[in-house]
Design a protein that fits this description.
Rossmann fold, two-stranded parallel sheet, KR_dom, Sc_DH/Rdtase_CS, oxidoreductase
Length: 248
């Protein structure tokens, strides 16, 4: 039987103390990776690393992805704890939803900075390490919102669409160096944040999904594993929709 898909690989995942990021970290660890959990909440990052198996498997580090020095420190911590980064997952994100009329400039800037600048920091700095080794995979987290645009999310939709363009441009720059860059666009995924939606909003979204259910974080983690592993060795610059068929 084939061995674990990510055996002895070092994976760095931002926003990985909970939700989709933690599910990805958990799946990667199960497939043999050493995982570095980056999160703005240092305590939560360290707790997540402990749940993943402790020092031999995972390491938790505080990281504000909008600050390049923080992202570099996260990558340096990976090299110190395990080995230079093989897999980078840029997952950290926030929401500051409001209609354009009510959205503040600060709310717009915060979302653009965390999602778009944060992904750029992670992609750029991880690629600088990967190019020295002639290999590496980068997985960037977009959203269905970046494809269709959602009312009340001009900031989030713009950022998530930007991640698609950035990923494609980076893929073209890095392919000859042996580095692959791909993106995932989740649809409605069952998390603490989405389950806090008003019932009417949840039901309306469910009505748009041909498969008739929300996705689970484990289903995003499986796609991230595919893109991070050699199973997708001839794929770069692609965007995989994980939406249950919503707005196909």
């Amino acid at each position: 039987m084939p061995g674990p898909l990510l055996l002895d690989k070092t994976a760095v995942i931002t926003g990985a103390a909970q939700g989709i990021g933690y599910a990805i970290a958990e799946r990667f660890a199960a497939e043999g990776a050493r995982v570095v959990v980056g999160d703005i909440d240092e305590g939560a990052a360290k707790d997540a690393a402990e749940r993943l198996g402790g020092a031999t498997v995972a390491h938790g580090v505080r990281c504000d992805v909008t600050v390049a020095d923080d992202v570099q420190a996260l990558l340096d911590a990976a090299a110190t704890a395990f080995s230079p980064v093989d897999i980078m997952v840029n997952n950290a994100g926030i929401t500051r939803d409001a209609t354009m009329r009510k959205m503040t400039e600060e709310q717009f800037d915060q979302v653009i900075s965390v999602h778009l600048k944060g992904t750029w920091n992670g992609t750029r700095l991880a690629a600088a390490i990967m190019r020295e080794r002639g290999s590496g995979t980068i997985v960037n987290m977009s959203s269905l919102s970046g494809k269709i645009g959602l009312a009340g999310q001009t900031n989030y939709s713009a950022a998530k669409a930007g991640i698609v363009g950035m990923s494609k441009a980076a893929a073209k720059e890095l392919a000859h160096l042996g580095i692959r860059v791909n993106a995932i666009q989740p649809g409605l995924i069952r998390t603490a944040m989405t389950e806090a939606m008003p019932a009417k909003v949840w039901e309306a979204k469910m009505g748009e999904i041909p498969m008739g259910r929300a996705g689970e974080v484990s289903e995003i983690a499986s796609v991230a594993l595919f893109l991070a592993s050699d199973l997708s060795s001839y794929m770069t610059g692609t965007v995989l929709e994980v939406t249950g068929g919503r707005f196909m």
